[in-house]
Amino acid sequence: MLTQYFTRAATLMERRSGMAGPYLDDFIKWLESRGYHRSTIRLHIREAVNFTMWAHTQGFTLRELDQLALTQFGDQLARRNALRAPNGKYTYPYQSARLFVRFLAAIGIVTPRASQPSVSLPPFFQEFTEWMRTQPPAR
Per the confidence metrics, is the pTM higher than 0.85? Predict the structure, then answer.
């Protein structure tokens, strides 16, 4: 599958060499099954590989790429002012990391942490809380 999206030997070797490498073909199938377009899949693959490279430098294993790793990655992007685009949406690095973490959870590689609040919060409140958490501090 990966060879249908990337053709350069060096690019293929780079993509396959990291901790995401063994899962990229299945990740592509997972994205395709959700209706993602070719150009978007290429971006998500590139950024998922970058996310796992970052995770490796931070000492995370593949099985630890859960919400905690994603939060730390988001915090690092926020410090560089690279978490959100000017329109307020998450940038591709974070979107791709989040998708890759969801994929890993869907195939059973990652076990979601049991850090859910005991009271179920409405989805809009959870989204707002996540948005507030990722905003840069007021100056």
Answer: no
pLDDT tens profile 17-27: 889 999 999 99
For 123, the domain range is: 2-134
72 occurs within a structural domain: yes
Q: CA of 98: how far to CAs of 64, 65, 79, in Å?
A: 13, 10, 18
The amino acid at residue 121 is: L
Close Cβ partners of 49 (under 8 Å, ≥ 6 residues apart) = 14, 15, 18, 20, 24
User: Per-residue DSSP letters for 56-97?
Assistant: HHTT--GGG-SHHHHHHHHHHHHHTT-SB-TTSSBPHHHHHH
Contact 15, 91 (CB under 8 A): no
Task: For residues 109 and 78, give the distance between their C-alpha atoms in angstroms, rounded to a whole number.
Answer: 27
**Structural domains of the chain, count:** 1
Give the three-state DSSP class for 51.
Answer: helix
Answer whether residue 139 is part of any domain. Answer: no
